[in-house]
Model the fold of this input.
Amino acid sequence: RSLIVGFGALAKELVPRLRPFGVHIAASRQSAWEDHSDCPVAAMVDERVPGGTLTEALAEADIVVLTCTLTPESRGLVGAEFLAAMKRDALLINCARGGLLQYDPVLEALQDGTLGGLATDVFWTEPCDPNDPIVSHPKVLITPHVAGVTILSYKNMANVVAEEVKRIHRGEKPARQVNST
Done:
């Protein structure tokens, strides 16, 4: 059984990849599921968990995958309460944002065996400290923040840059301007 926390672009890529393995897929999202009534990927989800009601789904999931956005509300989502609600020895995969996890409770859960393992592509601070106890823990698998690096992602980045250059060339303000200097 798997639980995907957050049903956006990442989850929509993950669900079709899990389906061939016969995994029961539960997914949770903060906004209404009706927003996805015509989404073929949403139809592949076995169980739709309403936002804010994760406790029961966490207790049943063997694998919990974080694909949600980092917001003021989701920052620190995975803390002592979240981890205590998880099935003992369940695996936690974070392919979203490092700020979703509270460091001390995650380390404690790894050390006391509550958490079966952690796989992450994102960190609390980047680059990650190789001497960090979580980084060197035997039940932790880390990739260097490259999970989203694909041919498609590079093409999309190139398209964004090209559109911004065209916009500036036309004398328009960049749509993605960070500062004015």
Notes: Strands lie at 2-5, 25-29, 47-50, 63-66, 91-94, 117-120, 140-142. The chain has a mean pLDDT of 87.
